[in-house]
Amino acid sequence: MLMVQASLDGILLGILFALIAYGMALQWGVMNIINIAQGDLVILGGYIAYTMYLAGIHPAWGVIVSPIIMFFVGWALYKLVINKVVDRDLFISILATFGIAIVFQQLMNFIFGADVVVAQSEYGTTMLFDNSVTLPNSKIFSAFISVLYAIALVVYMKKSRLGRAIRATAQNARAAKILGVDTEKVYAATFGINAALCGIAGALISITLTLHPYVGLPYTVRSFMIVIVAGLGNLPAVAISGMGLGLFEEFADYILGTEFRIGAVFMLLVFILVYRRFKLSKKREYLK
Amino acid sequence: MKQKDLILYSGLIILGLAAPFLFSAFKVQLTYLCVLIVLAMTWNLQGGEMGYNSFGNILFYGLGMYLTASVQVGMFFPLAEWTESGGEKTFVHTTAQYFQGIGVGLLVAAIIPTIVAGAIGYAILGLRGHYFAICTLGLGIAAGEIAGGIEIIGAGQGFTTPPFPAEIVDPEARGQFFYFLSFLVLVVAFVFVKYIYGSRFRLILNAIRDNEDKAEAMGIQTMKYKIVGWMCSAFFCGLAGGIMGGLIGYIDSTDVAFDGREMGVFMVLMAILGGKGTLWGPIIGATLFHFFKEGLWTFILGWQYVALGVLIVVIVVYFPEGLMGWLREKYPERFGEVIDEKDRKAQVELK
What we know:
The structure holds two protein chains of two kinds.
Chain A: H1 2-31, H2 38-54, H3 62-80, H4 90-112, E1 125-128, E2 133-136, H5 137-159, H6 161-171, H7 173-178, H8 183-208, H9 216-230, H10 235-256, H11 261-281
Antiparallel strand pairs in A: 1-2
Chain B: H1 3-22, H2 27-49, H3 58-74, H4 79-83, H5 87-90, H6 95-124, H7 129-147, E1 159-160, H8 173-197, H9 200-210, H10 212-217, H11 222-248, E2 250-251, H12 253-257, H13 263-274, H14 281-297, H15 304-318, H16 322-330, H17 341-350
Antiparallel strand pairs in B: 1-2
């Protein structure tokens, strides 16, 4: 039964990771930057929902409020820092967002304290298979909301004017500019949408998992991992590899013990990169 | 060596030797400075010269720290009992044991990380650019998380390194010992890096940085040189870590040893601040950074990480060439670059 428990937990968690990874893939594909602060945006989104919970509002409303606030946070971040690193070397964007991540962590530490917190959704739990598998309803809720938002985003990217502009910019920024797309605005919107996705994921994490100012980096690494496995702009693959990662994590947790969980995630990143490097080097290519 | 250089170097060495007596209250800070310079200089060897921007040199630093302490304890006492709570009170090193232990420990701390770098180098250094950066970042953090779960080196509760022998009553002795140790490592590292700067090896590293495919097409075995370059960094990172472990006196897996959030970023930042790919850049960068950090940290207590983050963003976004790069642009003649006046004028007109 432990296997079933771990699998269900892993899949539900993985859907959440896939949502964050989709934001990562979006900004990477459109703006060619790697955002180390991704995980910290997630945590910030979570703290917004937690603040609502403290104020007496049900934290599930965070999935609507948090993305709206986070969109403007992302927009402001773009205008302040990111717009200066868009056309530069990727390493510059990694370091710059690393700096942003440190600032975010410390500010969250000041504002919300260094305790591990969780917003109680009081959704109860579902018991399956004669009470041998427990499934918190909040996890089911979060997976459902993630799927809902992912579908909404895909439809928005396909149909809306801004979505078309974003896709055009991703394909060829220069050509898009010539054809009258305001790429600067598109970039800002992309980063804002990414931050909003992080906000949704954060709000869901605040009710399903726990929040702490310094746990952002594992989320960044998870989403990075999902993106390099799935490739940019391949949504079904992102969802599947997200679930795969969730499964891996839950099983690593059961087999190795909880203290090695994060370590296992980071080691998996190293192994995936090295595996892909050996695969490509047979064709005398390298990861680009 | 020119006479001017001779005066400069002998002056610096005399200053270095006299520093703990001149500023005896700041011995620990000076030791830190030496270690930071070593870290920045050796990071620059592969970050600046080879173009492989690593966030993971902290791996070797932490490894060196744990190895020195483990060897120092393990040579004389059972390690597992030492790391259990209060072990450092039951077992006491004699003076001879302490120095023997730290000597052998530092040797091991230099050699094992070098071997590790060589062993993982083939796999990791096949990644390029940002993939390498992210991979090494993951490696450093994974090492910290895993070290935090291993019982024999203290796991989450940390590892108290052997205290300085109580038989030496002079209160200055401990600080002076660690200062001169780190100064020695600094001098060795400088001589080594300076030697590399004058050698063909540096040109090969630069070729790899500028265009790896072309370098390979020219018949350079890039992988071999990349691994050697990384091993050079690992050697000094391990030594620096060993010294820091003894100086701090307490090893925590994620906050002291594999401290990617502080040391791991500092070494990158210092090299960039001074100027990547120059001999003096990382030294100047590390010195400036250390003064800034120590001068400001106490005034902005609690806000230091915010300041650090803002500093990273400002340096990286507005100052990616660093101090030396800026100087180079301003006074190119000083760096032995000949500027064609006609060409310069033509460029100004174009603008």
